[in-house]
Amino acid sequence: MPPGFAVKFLLLCTCVRAVRYDTEEEGLLAMEEQAEKEAVRNKRLYFHRINTYYLVDHSTQCAQLCRLTADCKSYQYRQGEQRCEINNATMREFPSHSKTLTGWSYYKRNAIAFFGIWSPCPQESDPCRNGGICTSRLLKTQQTEPNHCRPTCVCPAGFHGDDCQTDARDKVGWKQHGLYAFKVFSDNVTPKRYNEARTACADEGATLGILKDEDTHDFVLALKNMTAPSEKLWIGLSDSEVEGSFAWEDGSPLGDFSQWVPGQPNSQSNRNCVYITPQHATHPSQWGDRSCSSRHVAAYVCQKKLSFWSRAKVVGSSGSSDDATHSADRTTDGHSLTYWRPDDSNRYFNNW
Ligand SMILES: [Ca+2]
């Protein structure tokens, strides 16, 4: 540990009020510039990945995740996928394990000069599980964050809960596919109408499944065929808003991908909701439109986004919990160096 780091760390955890970080953004920009100079473009290291994080919208965040992971020796980031991979080895150690792959950038752990902007938690007060990493948020000035000695857990995709203790990837039927978890529900005794299925998904913190590509479609079909192969299945697609103009539940129009049964949709104003046909149908596992109030569709699929940040626990510097819990959604202010902002505060959280 460099000597300067230890000093900064001590200052952080004793909450010394005199510490000011007016130049945090300049600091980040300088670090980012330096790191980008050291990036190895279009390279990815294989076989040494110890964690993957999604929804990481900047390489600097990936640097932080590496920095806060004890075993991290290198990291790689793909902007297009907002994907950050943490490795416990370097390309220099395993040159034959690196491959050329467009879009990836590879960095050594120390690509970013580090001067205490981010701090790990003391081990004794680290509540994070399942690969979650613990960090203290640190903000621009002492005025904007009076309680800056608060470790929070950053959960890998697929985990959530205060301490990243909940594994959402494979629990009670939810299965992870990319950034989402899907679950097929079925009840052929009291089948749900489309809107009832939509409400049932909302009760799960989810939406009806959005199957914009073949990969996702096949994934959902596999789920369906495990639990409800003989049922029809509502998906989150309808033309209720504008007849003939099908749109997904997220508001986006039906794109290039579709799996209509030949002759469907038959564009009737009383057939606005889309289902997938049963496995034994004449045209198995394809799409048809039918009345949204039909009770002949006994299954539906819900999806929910797996959050990179979920609920972040706030603990005191002594390690004791307090009641404050920050829902750390990503900010929407468009600032490239702004990461997440707890939504229970209107202060100038510009970091985490
Ligand atoms: Ca219609």
From TrEMBL:
The domain of life is: Eukaryota
Q: Where is the EGF-like domain?
A: 117-165
Identify the CDD domains for this entry: CLECT (cd00037), EGF_CA (cd00054)
Q: Where is the composition biased (Basic and acidic residues)?
A: 323-333
Region Disordered: start and end of each range?
Answer: 317-337
Keyword entries, A-Z: Disulfide bond, EGF-like domain, Signal
Intrachain disulfide bonds = C155-C164
- Does this entry carry the keyword Disulfide bond? yes
Apple domain sequence ranges: 35-111
Q: Which InterPro entries match?
A: C-type_lectin-like, C-type_lectin-like/link_sf, Ca-Dep_Lectins_ImmuneDev, CTDL_fold, EGF, Pan_app
Q: Where is the signal peptide?
A: 1-18
Keyword Signal annotated: yes
* Name listed for the protein in its UniProt record: Uncharacterized protein LOC109484347
